[in-house]
Amino acid sequence: MPIKNIILDLGVVIIDVDYNKTAEAFKKLGLSNFDEIYSKKKQDHFFDDFEKGILDVADFRDEVRTHIAGKLSDRQIDKAWNAMLGRVPHKRVELLESLSQKYDLYLLSNTNKIHVPAFSKILDEDHDLEKFYSLFKSVYLSCELEMRKPDKEIFDLVINENNLNRDECIFIDDTPHHVEGGKRAGIASFHLADGQDLTEFLPSLLNREARKA
Question: Does the domain spanning 5-17+87-212 belong to CATH 3.30.420.40?
Fold first, then answer.
C-alpha cells in the first residue's frame, strides 16, 4: 500500500538535542553521575513518570535534588534540564511544509512539562509555533497523555483517533527501542541514526517505499 501518513518524533528528528549538554550542566551543579540515571539509551523510572505526566514538575525537581548534596533552585534545575534543547533547522521545517502537501503528518513525542514551554519558545522564535503545529494533523505529547513510547498504547491512540490504516503509515524516531515499539504496534518504523538528518533520510525512505508499492 502507498504511504499516506508519517508519524514523527520531535527530539533529534526535528529539533536538535544534545543530551551531553544536560549531563554537563548537572555535573557542574554537583550531580556527577547524571548520565547513569538519564541518557538516550536508558533512564531512571522517575523520568518515565515525568514524561507520562504522572510525576508533576515540583516532584520531579525534588527527585533530582535527592541525587545532589547541595541545594538547587527550581531555576537551576530547569536550566540544566533544558540545556539539551537546541534549534530547529529551517531545512527540516521546509521539508515538513513540502511533505504536508502530499502526506498527513503526525507528531509523537516523549516529553515533559519543563521541556514543553522551552521547546515551544524555540519553535516560536525559529518558525512561529502556531504555523509549525499547523503542519501536523495531530500532535501527541506524552506528558499530556499519561503514556509514552515505546508502549503500544500510545501508538494505538494515534492510529485509532485518526482512523488510520497501519499499512499506510511510517514512524521515524531516533531511539531504537521506540522504533521497536512502533514495530510491535504494527507500524513500519525506522531509526534515524546518529549523524543522519531527516532532510536526507526521509525523502530517501519515501522513495524506497514508493518503489515497493
Answer: no
